[in-house]
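User: Structure tokens for both sequences below?

Assistant:
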Amino acid sequence: MSTLYDQVLYPNTPFRQTHPDRLATLAILFGMDPTPVSRCRVLEVGCGDGGNLIPMAFENPGAQFLGIDSGAVAIRAGNREIEILGLSNIRLECVDIMDAGPELGIFDYVIAHGFYSWVPGTVRDKFMAVIKEVLAPRGVAYASYNVLPGGRIRQMFRDMMLYHLGGETGFDVSIERAHQIVQWFGACQRREGESSLLTAQVESVIERTPQVLFHDELNPVYHPVYFHEFCAEAAGVGLQYLSEANYFDTQAKQLPANIASEIERLAKGDRIVREQYFDFMKCRMFRQSLLCHADIVLPSEPLAERLPLLRAASQAKAVSKKPDLRPGVAEEFHGAKGAAVATAHPLTKSVMVLLAQAWPQSLSFPELAAAASGLTGEPADANGLAQILLSVFVAGVIELHTQPRKCVAQVSQFPVASALARSQVSRGKCATTALHVMMDSADERLCAFIELLDGTRDVDALVRELRPSFQLSEQDLAHGVRENLKLLAANGLLIA
């Protein structure tokens, strides 16, 4: 039976926050001992064409992956991709979750991105039951969903768009009319006085990929819930809230200190109560929550003593061109999405400088301790380093991982792009990086450049190959090649 997702394919892409490495990292921080990613078993519910799952399988040949989806067209496309890549550790199957159960097997990690809020209540109930049935004792599940109160804003826009559609269900006309009324609304807001939440949502709708807008905002089902309701539903089947996939999102962030303090007093140490109040104050619209079995005893906060089990990485850059590592001299480091840290502590500054130099690779705890000692001239206290890493992680300035990334920070003499990326761009697809994100390589010349990076050419050879496609001097073209290689390395596309 054909589904709406067969008629209009949902663009399934890599989602960093769903990667089992991310799930395992949060589990370790909360005292669990999850199965190592290199030999884990992963189930993705609503896998589409495998755009998220296939790169994981390619990267981890010793792990096993299963994707299920009711859309037969997407499943067929994904299985063609698997065959092209020659992968034997992944299966995509056309399965309705209402027909799924223990026969699926047992999994260390279960992923469901963009599923829960867009299916009827009976399917949501079944989804929770399936997670409970198939999740290994030390397993972690990921589910994204629309939350209230911010979901009311999305619902307001959804109601306007559906009314303006007037019953139209065709893709092109639906998108055209949806954009039209949202643009009208945006123009009226600018004339009447801007509201940041409303204008931000106008921009979000207009910038959304049309297929995503069609399936998310214009879906026949839209079911936002309060965070505490989602947690209660999970508890009803024997699961519990572990963390958000983006731990930074659980923090007070920009809330006034006095309000954050009052919320802490009301919560009395209950994480669910605290985060529900934060959702109210932030008018939060979307969550990406991790679940585990209810019989696991979890601490109320991440444990600093678990940091030696993890690796650190950071794209944050120092504001100063040459940070001063001496005591008492404050330096600022800025990361993504407004995350920042200002510190005069020599060890903290050394850690941030070292991670910036290593990006996109990660450093293990011992590697970081040894290198930081070399910069400061003082032995790095293990407990102090763990506390530093935890604090900057909570602030969203660094990432934590369980395994090294399969990429390099420096461009080698004979650069090599990952086999996955080269295969993807050779077929007109966007390249998936070692960071588990999609690098937009739709430009034909960039795709051709990535295809050439098979380890047999140095810069001079690359310049000779590319010369016919560019009206540039040899010197300028060589400079461009080197700069693009640095860019690809920074994005995790080079492996040697």
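Moving on to the next sequence.
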Amino acid sequence: MIDDEETIRELLSSILTRFDHDVTIATDGMGGIKVFETGRFDLVLTDLGMPGVSGWKVAQRIRAIDPDAVVILITGWGVELDGNGLKEKGVDFVISKPFRVKQIMETISKALTLRDCALSKPVERK
């Protein structure tokens, strides 16, 4: 999870760990990218508005590292893009602030299903 606001990081971490998810935290976009490069993660939650590297840039870099990565963008800015526009930017789901626990968990469930589908697709051999 990548967010520059400590209260949001703590809240999301608490919610996710309460539902038995392992959480790795980064405090900014570049830090999140570096953490992703060194580990294996089922999905990435990233804030949109962060100093330095925005959530859009994080999503694009994550997808460059792992095209099957599932990225959830969290924003209070009211992002309005259709599904194709999000995909072009490397984002699978958007959660708007303020969010509710139910909304977070439903989105996480959809994201994990999407990741499972990506992992189970057949590999093309040439």
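User: Anything stand out in the second?

Assistant: The longest strand covers residues 71-75.
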